[in-house]
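User: Can you predict the 3D structure for this chain?
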Amino acid sequence: IALVVVAVLLCLSSALFAQDSKARIVRLSFVDGQVQIDRNAGQGWEKAILNMPIIQGTKLSAEQGSHVEVEFEDGSTVRLVGPAQVAFPELTLGADGKKNSLVEVQSGLAYFDVPKVRDDSFRVSVAKHNFEVHKNAQFRVDASDPDQSVSVMKGELQLTGEPKEVAVKKNETITFKVDQPEYALSKDVDKLGSDQWNKDREQDRQLVARSEQYHNTNSYYGGNYNYG
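Assistant: Here is the predicted structure, written as structure tokens:
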């Protein structure tokens, strides 16, 4: 009987280890204006507060004129320029340590900075089209118009799950029409007024990071750039 019990426990523990964990460290790293969060806890929308954790199933909504930033463990970021809404259908950690992230841009304007892909999986969905980040990339998703687009400023994205898959490279834009499978790939990236805010925000992050390294600070709680 003892051997049977041990065998059952071993099988159960192996099954648990084989499952992906949801223990991720993803947080709201910047909030400006009217930003709402739905934590998929049955409470609906509530006010978003700096350093709130983002878990699988979370939704974020930024009103007109508002901005919000989500930071991942490796420093990757997603920035919204309101009005905009995104969801996080998958945020898991595999038994092998691989992080799996899926961000769905449901509406509005979103900027992505993914500097350290490595062996992790980072995917973005817009208008039922899926992209994988295979190289360190900076790109913009515009889901505010009927013609939705993804523009790559750095690196490369791979359009997957389509009859014809394609790589979207630096200084290229791929455009879709709603509920239609066709797409158009162009060799340019239009400039938007919100691009400057995205650049300024990234520069602020870099300045603070360098300042903290120089002064060797040990402030771990409550700051815009450190996890609480």
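The longest helix spans residues 194-215. The longest strand covers residues 77-93.
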